[in-house]
Amino acid sequence: MASDSKHRPVYVISVAAELVDMHPQTLRLYERKGLIRPGRSSGKTRLYSERDIDHLREIRRLTQELGVNLAGVEEVMRLQHELDDLQGEFEAEIERLEDELRGQAQALPESGARTDPRDRPVYVISIAAELVDMHPQTLRLYERKQLIRPGRSSGKTRLYSERDIEHLREIRRLTQELGVNLAGVEEIMRLRHELDGARSSLEGNVRRIQDDLSERMTRLRTLPPAPGEPDGDP
Predict the structure, then answer these.
(1) What is the longest distance spanned by two Cα atoms in the chain?
(2) Could you give the 3-state DSSP secondary structure of residue 152?
(3) What is the pLDDT of residues 132-166, one digit of tens each?
(4) 104 and 200 share a domain?
(5) Domain range for residue 138?
(6) How far is CA 50 from CA 36, 151, 213, in A?
(7) How far apart are the first and last CA of the chain?
(8) Domain check: are 25 and 58 in the same one?
(9) At residue 11, what are phi and psi to the nearest 5 degrees?
(10) Residue 132: which H helix or E strand, with range?
(11) Where would one find coiled-coil regions in this protein (predicted)?
């Protein structure tokens, strides 16, 4: 699997530092901050994967090109690690369900499509602004920057969901408490939206596989007996 090769720890710290044009001590600092998670050999030597190299290059881009402070970088990388972990969970769950399908396991209960109530657009802009202690014009600015994505009523009125409120509170925390600049906030919120989308996609794909498994097992149970086989009636 391609993703497995990207996560395979292969580079010692000196090679990894050379690949990303950083000092090895910088890589150790980033590890202590939890920004990067190198593997370990049996002898406890740090080993970096291609994914780690990608993360280190992203850290360099955020700090050197966008001027994001360390608190902002920590937020970005925490979300990136969540995305990586979610992808791993997704692949493991798909593999588990496929194993059940191949082994003709007992059908799983059906699960219809569900919408998270937090995504339901309910708050007009004045109420949303009051809930997060911001001016409505600030919310419009954040929408233009694509930091927030409110829904629309049939009359094109902005409507904000509970998840939008959570995102707005997170933006306020990043800017006011952590001092993250707007470029850093944009990166963080882009990753948050990507993470939300990945979770929804994972849940939807798992449900589809569960439904497919249920349908196949139902068909197997209702197949007529082969000629010459008892049909189960006395």
Answers:
(1) 80
(2) strand
(3) 999 999 999 999 988 898 998 888 889 999 989 99
(4) yes
(5) 68-220
(6) 12, 38, 35
(7) 51
(8) yes
(9) -100, 130
(10) helix 125-132
(11) 76-107
